Automatic annotation (TrEMBL), chains A, B:
SUPFAM superfamilies: Homeodomain-like (SSF46689), Tetracyclin repressor-like, C-terminal domain (SSF48498). This is TetR/AcrR family transcriptional regulator. Residues 8-68 form the HTH tetR-type domain. The keyword Flavoprotein does not apply. Keywords: DNA-binding, Transcription, Transcription regulation. The keyword Cell wall biogenesis/degradation does not apply. Signal peptide: none annotated. PROSITE patterns: HTH_TETR_2. It comes from Dactylosporangium roseum. The lineage of its organism: Bacteria, Bacillati, Actinomycetota, Actinomycetes, Micromonosporales. Residues 31-50 bind DNA.
Length: 191, 191
């Protein structure tokens, strides 16, 4: 008997069911059976595609976060940073932030899941930071040779830390203070 | 019958037993019974002092991390930052970092534990940052009115993020890059 892998549209339905359940009950209480029921798929289909829960969750994380996007293009470095950080804050403050915080739990015991999360939430986003920096260099706002590594690392760490420790709201004041007090000084050092 | 609270030296023994078990088996698998056995205390003594596991863990976290310390005093702002960050990295890289990462799991479901962790690992340390900044102002390295808030927030976030995502080693290169590329530019903006 030839066993086919789940087709693309089934994959999408299943990944979305996984994400819904992660949001509703969290990683520990999510079962493969519940995913099958939510996606109206047979258990055989689920297990054929993903042998266990970590694999299934990794697929759902890739599906939802694995891509990149065009960064904002406001005409100034500061404008781009404010717009981008505002978007990141909205994501961290919403259901995605809650799911991700929950998954960190599982990831501390699972290096592979941790690596997938890091790739999806960090590495695939790096090209956006590169684009913002290139545009700022082209406009003469930053010197030739400026790189996005520190910007990306600091922005990511500050947002994640605030979310994880419930250290304060993701409001305009946070965005402004982070952009003007941290990100721009880090980028403009030596200017 | 008058029931006395555990005496101070019993408290220390019990808190240290809790921390050892957190390091060995993690929060989820640590039982009140195991703590009693490790501390050679009766279960009645444990339950008399702390009605449940979160309370007991919070006491242990307070015991081990609740205090502050004198910051390094090397004679320069950069020297102080390098010395302090090196110490923080050594802690994050060792057993305390592992225990703390494990406790974050429990803290995502327990706002009170989260608040205790934040107080012990962040708020009680703030005075060290104040002292470092005051000394730098007195030496004329920073302008009057300089404050430690951003320094503390950024340093804490960068170390925690690196630990949690296993993003790289806590080596001299990380310390140097963080101090020269992020912390000093943040502190010296407007200088």
């Amino acid at each position: 008997m030839v066993v086919a892998a789940p087709k693309a549209d089934r994959r999408v339905t299943i990944c979305e069911a996984v994400f819904e359940l992660l949001a509703e009950v969290g990683y520990d209480r999510m079962s493969m059976d519940a995913v099958a029921a939510r996606a109206r798929a047979s258990k055989a289909t689920i297990y054929r595609g993903w042998p266990n829960k970590p694999e299934l969750v990794m697929a759902a994380v890739e599906h939802r976060y694995g891509g990149s996007a065009e960064p904002p293009d406001t005409g100034s470095l500061r404008g781009d940073l404010v717009a981008h950080l505002s978007t990141v804050c909205a994501v961290a403050d919403g259901i995605d932030g809650a799911v991700f915080t929950g998954l960190l739990t599982a990831a501390t015991h699972n290096a592979e899941l941790s690596a997938v999360m890091r790739r999806c939430v960090y590495e695939t986003k790096h090209v956006m930071y590169e684009t913002m920096i290139k545009r700022a260099v082209a406009r003469g706002e930053l010197p030739e040779g400026s790189t996005p590594e520190l910007l990306h690392e600091v922005l990511h760490a500050l947002v994640m830390s605030r979310r994880l420790w419930r250290a304060g709201p993701f409001d305009e004041a946070f965005v402004k203070r982070t952009v003007d007090g941290v990100l721009l000084p880090v980028l403009r050092q030596g200017c």
